[in-house]
Amino acid sequence: MVLNYFENIAFAYPFVLPALLIVPFLIFWYLKRNAAVQSSMPISSLRQLKGAQSWKTTLRHVPFALRCLAFICLILALARPQTRNDESRVTGEGVDIILAIDVSGSMLAQDFTPNRLEAAKAVAADFIDSRPTDRIGIVIFSGESFTVCPLTTDAGVLKSQLYNINSGILEDGTAIGSGLATSVDRLRSATSKSKVVILLTDGENNGGQIPPLTAKEIAKSVGVRVYTIGVGTEGYAPVPMQTMSGEVITQKEKVNIDEKLLHQIATETGGQYFRAKDNESLKNIYSEIDKLEKSKIEVTAIHRFTEKFYPLAIAAAALLLLELILRYTILRKFP
C-alpha cells in the first residue's frame, strides 16, 4: 500500500529530503544514551516488582519510534509529493483537402508496382496518416465522377474507403473536368481558409459533362488551390487486357498525359504540376505537397499537479499525538 502511494510521485521541493539523514543520527544518539542509562542504573533486589515492570520495559522505546516516524512523515510532507497529469490542447486551423484519383482502366498499367492505382492508393494512405489535424475527402473519376468519402478527420474511415477503390466501378474514360468539379463542390461549403485538391490522373480528358477549363474556373472562384499529378512512365507501359474469351493478356500502350492542361489548371489556381514516373517519385511528390500545405496548428502542453502531502502531514500529527498520549499516560515516568 505504501509503495503504491509513492508510485509516479515527484517532489516539488526535493532539497528538503536530505533532512531524512538526521534520523540515523537520532537513532544512534538514542541507543547510546539508553545504554549509558542502563549501565548506571543500580540493580534492584526486589524481584517481586520485576513482573510488574516488564511490559513497560518492553514498550519504553515506542515513544521514540513514533517520534522518528512522525519526523520522517513531516520531512516527506514538506518536500511536497505530487503527481503530474499532462494534457495537450490543439488549437489552430487545418487544411481541407480532396484527393481526386483517376480510376480508369489505364490506371492498371504496370509501369508502377504493382500498378498505377495501387501505388496511388499506397502513397495517399501515407499522406492521410501524415495530416491528422486536416479534414480530407476522396473523389474518384473515370468516365464519370463519384465522392467516395466526404471531408473528415477520421483517418480509419478514409483509409478503409481508399483501400476499397478499384478500377471498373465507374464508366470507363477520363473525365478530368468532372473529377475536378466534384472535388471543388465538396470544398465549396468548407469554412477553412485553405482548400486544396490533389488531382491524380494518367491520361487525357475524353469524357464527362464539364470541360476541365470550366472546372478550373469554378475552382478559382471558390478559392481552391489545385495540385495536379501526371502518372506514367515515358513511352509505352504494359497494361493487362481481358480478351473475349476471358483470358487476361498484357499489351503495350502509349502513355498519353495532357501535361499542358494539368500544368494550366495547377498554375492558374495557385498550385503546382508534378510528373510521377515511378513509385519513388510519386511518394516524393506527396511529400512535397505535404511540405507546401502546412496546417497552422498550435499545441499547448498543460501540466496539472495533484498534491499528495496531506496524508503524510496527518500521519505525522497522529504519530506525535499518540507519542504524547503514551508518554504521559501508561508510559509515564514517576519520580
From TrEMBL:
VWFA domain mapped to chain residues: 96-289
Regions that span the bilayer: 12-31, 62-79, 309-330
Keywords: Cell membrane, Membrane, Transmembrane, Transmembrane helix
Domain of life: Bacteria
PROSITE patterns: VWFA
Protein name (record): VWA domain-containing protein
Taxonomy of the source species: Bacteria, Pseudomonadati, Bacteroidota, Chitinophagia, Chitinophagales
